[in-house]
Amino acid sequence: MNISIVVPVYNEEESLPELNDWISRVMDENGLSYELLMIDDGSSDTSWSIIKELKETNPAIKGIKFNRNYGKSAALQTGFNEAQGDVVITMDADMQDSPDEIPALNQMVIEQGYDLVSGWKKKRNDPIGKTIPSKFFNRVTRMVSGIKLHDFNCGLKAYKLNVVKNITVYGEMHRYIPLIAKWNGFFNIGEKVVEHRARKFGTTKYGWKRFVTGFLDLLSVTFVTRFKKSPMHFFGTLGTLSFLFGLVITMWLIGEKLYYVYILNAHEQAREIVDQPLFFLSLVALIIGVQLFLSGFIAEMMTQFRKGGEDYLVVERTD
Ligand code: UDP
Ligand code: MG
After folding, report:
1. Is there an atom of ligand 1 within 6 Å of 172 CB?
2. Would you say residue 318 lies in a domain?
3. Is it the case that residue 215 has pLDDT exceeding 90?
4. Does 239 contact ligand 1 (Cβ within 6 A)?
């Protein structure tokens, strides 16, 4: 099969029939074999019965329905698990992404060898309250990741099959798929300007809150992908620094006290240890240091129990 198209669907009943028509027309015109994975993310409207209806006329459709709303990432991940095509395309159900882009995206992956091609909504048809924060968000993500993309969160993306089989998307991490891919060793990331259309039916599922949670997610995804395999490198370093800091202060306090008492023989001049702010600082630093170390050990143990466990990907062999 040439292409798997993964479409997350959350209350998009009006869009689905048109989307299906359009996709099947484009695929037929270009002679591409495909499967259309529609993941119903717990819609409360009639989306699911429409998917079942559409399947009767278009056997390429595979519908999957969640028991409740889990979010776009879960829907994408499910599609990734199911996908069988050589190239996997994700696109939103609201028809803001145009299926006409699929053949060119497919070609970039197959012929130009990209691991991942992200759409770039250069001319965006969205309200200004969304486009300006989005520019800022993309700039920060570019700086953190070193990936030269203009539009990380574009719903329209194309992947080699082994990329989607080797990344995990959870929570709200779909915004950071290019980062996750890069940190898993898929460096060949490209970009294609795509047409972006205004939402015709329904409403957006994300408000301004996406920008607050989005940045927290950037922290998590950076942290997790960097230190997942060796959390002790993170916790251990900080823990050691904190502990040493506390230790040095403690030694200083003890040394000072001994100096006054035994060398100067001026017992009454020496301050009580517990009267000194430094004492409390060292106490806190020592405790935090030990805590960080323990967190590191527990995190290390948890990485042992991770599903699959292996942290490498073999791409070629000769037997
Ligand atoms: N979506 C989903 N689960 C959710 C929220 C959204 O599957 O909890 C789907 C939604 O149906 C659409 C895509 O994710 O196909 C993008 O959502 P939306 O168009 O609301 O986002 P925006 O274009 O405003 O960024
Ligand atoms: Mg949309």
Report:
1. no
2. no
3. no
4. no
